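# step 3/5: fold
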Amino acid sequence: MRILTWVTLDKKICYNCIKARIHMFRNRTGFTLVEALITLGIIGVIAGLAIPQAISGRMAQQAKGQFDAAYSILQHAVADMTSDGVDLSQRKFIGSDAKQTEKCNEKSTTTEYRCTSGNDGTIKKSGRSLYNKFKPYLKISVDCGAHTPESFVDSSSVCPYANVDNGYKNYIGSADGHDSIKKLFWNGAYVLSNGMLVTFSIHDNKAYTLVSIDINGKNKQPNRWGYDLFTFQIWNGELVPLGAPGTQLKSVSEGNIKFDENVEKYCKNISEAWSGATCSYYALSDEEYFKKLYGRN
């Protein structure tokens, strides 16, 4: 029998024709347009989820590597200074004892000291000495000078200017930290050979000495406290992150800020002038800090 027919609803169906079509579909190598579009849609959804995660992961890894390198550079410098007998105690950079007053009266403002009149009428030594003491222990490519824009050896855009925020923002990316961030550039800065920016801030009659570092340089974003700008304090002759035991800030306008008792407060998304100041503490103590930081953005 050459042709077998079935009858369904009074219609004859060719068995051989059905068999031929089944054979054709079994041996098909391509996709229909609908199938291709569905596949591309699935790929797009997966890529939309995976690519941002991959980018944030890469950013977190890079930032952590830069931060670790920056901290190692500063820590080694302080260790070498201590080994060489350099006194990093607070009294070497602030205060108004007789010897310091005499030094200021003799030399007035120099590259090592900036002499200013205190409220009590005495002449006090400012903190340029720390800026100079660090120099031999760091690989510097650009010496930005100390304190005032006029004193900068190199006024290029890689250097910050004193008493301005230089485009930096606080942890939440707002200008609320404008006045606080300005203080980071008061007493000198230089650009290291790897492009990192180191700044000093020492305040007359105030018990805090800050060393800040931009881990990717002034001209690279985001220029935010806790992201690429981190601040440490010279405390009892050691370099410690703000938030470590004993770290604080005393200011006539802002009162006594105890970073060690408010570590979380100054590294979170709140509208606070010093928001981001203690993030160096978490960057050092929490291995997942940068993953958490970039993973939520």
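# step 4/5: annotate
Confidence is low (pLDDT under 50) at residues 1-12, 94-100, 107-112, 119-123.
# step 5/5: archive (pending)
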